[in-house]
Amino acid sequence: MPTQQAIAHSVNNTNLADLLERILDKGIVITGDIKVILADVELLTIQIRLVICSVEKAMEMGMDWWRTNPAFVPGGQKDALAGMQERLDRLEASLPKE
To answer: Is the pTM of this model over 0.70?
Structure first.
């Protein structure tokens, strides 16, 4: 059975920075499901999946959505809006004139 001194010593050695470094290095997944059921009828289901890890770990797992998401690429949103405007212009030009 561990003594009170040994327990206090192990707690003092692990600080928040060490814990955060371990989590970012290894990664952590938090999952949860929320269901709303009324009179044995499922009305709503929400599935929550949260991954906390470093960028390097995320790339190892194949999660690199920030590279292609227009919101995170410099000038990406402007390019996406310009592309949508071009499509809209082509669609409007193809409509029959009244």
So the answer is: no
